[in-house]
Amino acid sequence: MTQKKSFLERKDVHISFQRYAIDAFGAMAQGLFASLLIGTIFGTLGDLTGLEVLGQIGGFAKAVAGPAMAVAIGSALGAPPLVLYSLAAVGFAANDAGGAGGPLAVYVVAIVAAELGKLVSKETKVDILVTPGVTVGIGCALALLVGPWVGAAASWLGGVIMWATDLQPFLMGIVVSVLVGAALTLPISSAAICAALGLTGLAGGAALAGCCAQMVGYAAASFSDNGWAGVVSQGLGTSMLQVPNIFKKPITWVPALVASAVTGPVATVVFGLQQNGAAIASGMGTCGLVGPIGLYSGWIADGIAPGVHEWLGMALVCLVIPAVVAWATSMALRHAGLIEEGDMKVE
After folding, report:
1. I want to staple 284 with a disulfide (CB 3.0 to 4.6 A). Which of 217, 258, 290, 312 is the partner?
2. Measured distance CA(120)–CA(14) in Å, rounded
3. Are 256 and 150 contained in the same domain?
4. In a domain? residue 162
């Protein structure tokens, strides 16, 4: 037992929630952003400007989403070079086999392939053959075996969420908005979750509302602590910067959570806001304005010419309401002495 533990330590294989649920998932989100998300942005810019080259660039970026996610996961798991490079093929296979649930299939398969590749890495004199052989061979075989099942399960769950949101837009608007928004702030990955479940439509709109509420909400609620620099870093960057403050004083999260609970049903019931761009955009909020861009690209794809109703819905749900609600809630908590100056300071 001790010998086995020593071997795993030497191979940097640590089976833990932190490594697989947080490190790997977070890295997967970065891989998604560097491929599918940035590709979507370029594609939308191409549609807006009529420049074909932008659309082509977007197509290239989106085409390598699977390899980008797998390599990102391998990097987070400390995969050595040969394993890391081999994961490109594994990611492509898993994303392709997983269909609508491709990102989730990549997540599962890439972790297994990366860890197995690490176990055999540099253990033989023909490492150049063994390591990529094991990583690619087992990884791709696993992708073909479980990818369709993982994809079907993800599609089913995403479909249930979207069905429930269509059926009960008020209640599910709150639930989806709060949960996905919370995932954006926590060191998980709302983007990866939305991509894995294929959350679009009304459920995608609720998810987007929750994510925007966290980012814009924190920017407004913490303005006295962080100023305009905080508006940029949190409103266009990430509300994850507040995690240390949440751990120290959980009540500092309340303004953003309240904003999520308010904007969700406003998006689903009042404006019927559907996010039909790339599913990952549903979990990005205002980060780089990817969420609003996703809304717009969805309108274009659906042949909708956005009018006052659409633009007003976007502005109120993504910016105005979360800022006002979070700021007002924060002020109330500050007046009650539950939140003090410096509690939301971002280092």
Report:
1. 290
2. 15
3. no
4. no
